[in-house]
Design brief:
The chain contains 6 helices and 4 strands; from the N terminus they run H-H-H-E-E-H-H-H-E-E. The chain is mainly alpha-helical and 155 residues long.
Length: 155
């Protein structure tokens, strides 16, 4: 995972903006960013990427409800009690519900209600879980568990 100040090495199979979003999530979770995020210019310089890439990363965090825009300030960490990204909270559902490979994953509508977020945010998180190989979308049927997430080990 990228740390602040690291340069992005070439093309990423996951998408550079996703790696930057992951790095910012980590900084927020670990308390290194508690209020204001660095400016877009600072993030561009820190990660060696274009403004569009930085904005895509910030848009993901904003859709997840982790950050929001504050007029005259920039982007800041949201005050909500749940600071963990939506995709992480959705990963918890595998264990909480005892989901096995092949099991149906909750519908978009149910996830929107459960987490109190927009369908756009749910779809972005589901897309991430699909990209991680954990879910598989079956047209007209929904999403199904393709693999179980590995436990997160805190170091």
């Amino acid at each position: 995972m990228l740390e602040r100040g690291d340069q992005v090495p070439g093309a990423s199979p996951r998408g550079t903006y996703l790696l930057i979003a992951d790095a910012l999530r980590k900084e927020i979770r670990e308390g290194r960013i508690v209020k204001e995020l660095p400016s877009e210019s600072a993030l561009m310089q820190d990660h060696g990427v274009a403004r569009t890439t930085v904005r895509r990363a910030l848009d993901i965090l904003q859709k997840e409800g982790l950050i929001h825009s504050a007029p005259g300030v920039g982007r800041v960490v949201s005050d909500g009690t749940e600071r963990r990204p939506l995709v992480e909270r959705m990963r918890d559902l595998f264990a909480e519900r005892g989901l096995a490979v092949g099991a149906a994953f909750p519908s978009e509508a149910r996830l929107c209600d459960e987490f109190g977020v927009s369908r756009t945010a749910v779809r972005a998180a589901l897309s991430t879980l699909e990209g991680q190989g954990l879910l598989e979308a079956v047209h007209g049927k929904g999403r199904f568990v393709r693999a179980l997430p590995r436990p997160v080990v805190n170091s």
